[in-house]
Each structure stands twice: as structure tokens, then as C-alpha cells.
Amino acid sequence: MVSYLITVVLVLVGVAFVTLLERKVLGYIQLRKGPNKVGFMGILQPFSDGLKLFFKEQTFPTYSNFMIYYISPVFLLSLSFSLWVLFPFLVNVYNFSFGALFFLCCTGMGVYGVMLSGWSSNSNYALLGGLRSVAQTISYEVSMALILVCLLIFIFGFNFLDFMLYQYYVWFIFFSFPLFFCWFSTCLAETNRSPFDFAEGESELVSGFNVEYSSGGFAFIFLAEYMNIIFMSLLTCIMFFGCDLYSIKFFIKWTFMVFIFIWVRGSLPRYRYDKLMYLTWSVFLPLSLNYLLFFSGILMFLI
């Protein structure tokens, strides 16, 4: 329990510095400095922003469904915390034999938090943002589950630690390169990141499902989103890049994956919504199904 609590605290500190990294990288992409005043090179900026956010006034819309409105951000944050139980420690913490199934359950439950927060605000903009986000998340979960199954059949189990054993000689990315791009695009869509950030399309939905949230409620939604980004980057490194937990290279690869999330945001414009749906149902789904049949056939032939 102590190991898990330490992990959660470190993840929260990591979220703070990921936001700083994002603002710095986006600043240099847009030919400006980014935060550089608070502390040395702006290193204390995330803590300043966090304090300001939590000391802001907490507003409650008069016609909102108060209890659901209040609990939804806490529910989203709790799901993000639950995911970190799967962090593949080698000693002194949980070792899930069915970690992949637990991951799919937690990501599936995230839909309800977004849907309830959008509906309970009793705002047309929040409801539209929530509906678009739910449709997008449910669609991409199908492809994500199939891509995950494609790689799970190589390790003969659901434990993420097994990826370290089965990638000792060769990383899985070398024979599933197209699957990696499908997986990464699905991760972007699942975490509502650009170019798939339709839940928060500012130009047409005024910040989407979280438009009525302020102060702590908004901070919880924000923390949940960035914790999911860090976890999906971790999962990408585990599945495709060797999962060498003993090595510092693992954490360098993990940081690089987080950087790629930010780089994509600074480089690509937002997709059109119908193209987003076409992408998962007509491209990712058939590709992952074909790969699943191909890998299954190869394994049956070898066995």
C-alpha cells in the first residue's frame, strides 16, 4: 500500500512537470519562450498554476444535477488512480495476473464519468461535448482492445510483466510496426488529445463537457486526463519497446512517448468528426482484425 501511495504522489508530481514540458515544447514550436518567470526557467510554474486553480471560486450551476455534477470529476480521478495499480513493479507491490483485463475495464468505465459530467451540468454545450466524447471513446476502445489482444497472444497471458520476458531478444514493434501507429492514434483519441480533441473543441463547443466546471472540479478532470496520457505512454513502452524495467532507458523511452503526445498537439490540426469515425471503423478495426488472424495463424503453425 505504501509503495502504491508513493507511486501516486510521484505520478501527481509527474503530471505537474508534464504540463510544464507541454507549455515549453508548444512555446518553442510556436517560436516563443513558454513559462520562464516563476522559479528557475519557469520550473515552479505548475505549482503556481495548481495553487491558483484550487483557490478559485467553486461555481455550481443553479439547474445542474448537484450530486452527479459534484462526484463526476472525483470518479474520473479515481479511475485514473486505479490504473496506476498496474504499474509493473518487480517487487513489493501488486502483480496482476489479469492486468490487461483490468486496464480494459477501467478505460471502459471512463466513458461514464465524461457522460455524467456533461449531462449533469445541464448545459447544451457540455451535453454536446460529452456525447461526442462518449461516441469517440467507445468507437476507439474496440480497436484498442483488438490491438492489445494482438500482442497478448505472443505472451500467452494478461500480465504486463510478461512483456519484459518475451521481448528479451526482439521488441514487438519490429514485427508490428503498422499496429504501433494504430495504437498510438487510438491512445490520442482515448485521451482526447489533439488532433482528436473533439470533446474540447473550443471553437464550436466552448471547452466541451467540462465547460461548467471551475476550481477543484476542473483540476480533477485535468489531472485525470494527464495521468491517463502518462499511463498510455507507459503502456506503449511496455508493449512495443521492450519493457526493460531494470534500465534507465525504459524511463527515457517513456519520457519520449509523452513528448510525442505534445509534439502531435503542436503539429497537427483538428480532424473532422466524420473522418475520425471513419478512421477507427474503416481503417484501424480491419487492420487490427487482419493482424490478429495473421499472428494467430503464425503461432498455431509454430506450435
UniProtKB/TrEMBL annotation:
Stated family: Belongs to the complex I subunit 1 family.
GO molecular function term, any single one: NADH dehydrogenase activity
Swiss-Prot/TrEMBL keywords: Membrane, Mitochondrion, Mitochondrion inner membrane, NAD, Transmembrane, Transmembrane helix, Transport, Ubiquinone
UniProt KW Transmembrane keyword: yes
The keyword Chaperone is annotated on this UniProt entry: no
Signal peptide start-end: none
GO annotation (BP), single: aerobic respiration
Function: Core subunit of the mitochondrial membrane respiratory chain NADH dehydrogenase (Complex I) that is believed to belong to the minimal assembly required for catalysis. Complex I functions in the transfer of electrons from NADH to the respiratory chain. The immediate electron acceptor for the enzyme is believed to be ubiquinone.
UniProt EC number: 7.1.1.2
GO cellular component entries: mitochondrial inner membrane
Name by which UniProt lists this protein: NADH-ubiquinone oxidoreductase chain 1
Any matching Pfam family: NADHdh
Catalytic activity: a ubiquinone + NADH + 5 H(+)(in) = a ubiquinol + NAD(+) + 4 H(+)(out)
Membrane association type: Multi-pass membrane protein
Cell compartment(s), UniProt: Mitochondrion inner membrane
PANTHER family assigned to the protein according to its UniProt record, in alphabetical order: NADH DEHYDROGENASE SUBUNIT 1, NADH-UBIQUINONE OXIDOREDUCTASE CHAIN 1
Membrane-traversing stretches: 6-26, 67-91, 98-118, 138-161, 168-186, 218-243, 250-266, 278-302
